[in-house]
C-alpha cells in the first residue's frame, strides 16, 4: 500500500485516544479538499490561532484562483450565512467575495466559483449534486467540508449527509469526540500537533479487503 491520499494536518497528541485527526487535506484531480471534525471552528475565529488557520484554509483551497467563495444553504447546514460573517469579513480584506447557493448545487451554480463551503449539512443531497461537486473539485475547485459526527441523531449513521458526500472522496466522520486533559480550553482540545507529525489512521486497506471478500462471495459469504 502506498501513502494514504488524505493527509492529517491537525490532530491530537499522545494524550488523546486514536483516531484523533481533526483536519484532513488532499488533492483530487486538479482540485483540493479539506475536512474538519467540528463545524464550529468558523464561529470561533477569535480562539487561539483559529483565524489564521481559517484564512490559510481558504487561501489553500483557492489555489491562486478567482477568490470567489460559495457556501450552500439548501441542505439544513448548521454553518451558513450569518455564521460565516466573521470569516467573510476577514477574507474580504484579502479580496475574496462570498455568495450563497440557496438551491441545488450544480455545475451552473458553481460557475465562476473557486471555493465551496459545505457547513455540516443535515438534509440529503441529490445524486446529481454529488457528481457535480465531484466534477467541480476534479476540474480545479476547492471544497471545505465541515462535519460533526456526534451531532447526527438519525437512527442510521450511514444516512448522515456529510458522510454520504465524503464517501465520494474516501473520507468519513466518526461519532466519537476528541478530548485532551492536558491541552484544552473550556473542555475543548487544543490542537498543537500539525502535519507531518500528526498521526493518521487510514482504514482504506481493511475496508478494501472487506469489499473484495463480499465481491468474491456475493451469496455464499457466511453471516
Walkthrough of the structure:
The protein has 223 residues and is of the alpha/beta class. It is 23% helix and 20% strand. The chain contains 5 helices and 10 strands; from the N terminus they run E-E-E-H-E-H-E-E-H-E-H-E-E-E-H. The chain has helices at 50-62, 85-92, 127-138, 161-166, 204-216, and strands at 7-11, 21-28, 31-36, 68-72, 97-101, 115-119, 142-146, 184-185, 188-189, 193-194. The protein has an 8-stranded mixed sheet. A two-stranded antiparallel ribbon has the order 8-9. Helix 3 (127-138) links the parallel strand 6 (115-119) and strand 7. The longest helix is centred in the first third of the chain and has 13 residues, at 50-62. It starts with 6 loop residues before the first strand and ends in a 7-residue tail after the last helix. The model has no long low-confidence stretch (mean pLDDT 91).
At a glance:
The chain is of the alpha/beta class and 223 residues long. The protein has 5 helices and 10 strands; from the N terminus they run βββαβαββαβαβββα.
Amino acid at each position: 500500500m502506498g501513502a494514504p491520499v488524505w493527509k492529517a494536518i491537525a490532530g491530537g497528541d499522545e494524550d488523546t485516544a486514536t483516531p484523533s485527526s481533526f483536519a484532513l487535506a488532499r488533492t483530487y484531480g486538479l482540485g483540493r479538499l479539506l475536512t474538519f471534525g467540528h463545524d464550529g471552528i468558523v464561529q470561533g475565529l477569535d480562539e487561539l490561532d483559529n483565524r489564521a488557520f481559517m484564512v490559510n484554509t481558504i487561501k489553500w483551497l483557492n489555489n491562486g484562483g478567482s477568490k470567489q467563495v460559495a457556501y450552500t444553504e439548501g441542505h439544513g447546514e448548521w454553518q451558513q450565512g450569518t455564521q460565516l460573517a466573521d470569516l467573510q469579513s476577514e477574507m474580504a480584506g484579502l479580496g475574496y467575495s462570498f455568495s450563497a447557493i440557496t438551491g441545488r448545487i450544480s455545475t451552473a451554480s458553481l460557475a465562476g466559483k473557486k471555493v465551496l463551503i459545505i457547513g455540516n449539512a443535515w438534509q440529503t443531497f441529490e445524486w446529481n449534486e454529488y457528481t457535480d461537486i465531484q466534477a467541480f473539485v476534479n476540474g480545479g475547485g476547492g471544497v471545505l467540508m465541515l462535519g460533526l459526527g456526534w451531532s447526527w441523531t438519525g437512527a442510521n449513521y450511514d444516512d448522515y449527509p456529510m458522510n454520504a458526500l465524503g464517501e465520494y472522496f474516501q473520507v468519513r466522520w466518526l461519532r466519537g469526540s476528541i478530548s485532551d486533559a492536558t491541552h484544552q480550553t473550556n473542555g475543548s482540545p487544543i490542537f498543537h500537533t500539525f502535519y507531518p507529525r500528526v498521526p493518521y489512521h487510514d482504514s482504506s486497506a481493511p475496508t478494501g479487503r472487506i469489499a473484495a471478500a463480499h465481491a468474491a462471495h456475493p451469496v455464499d459469504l457466511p453471516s
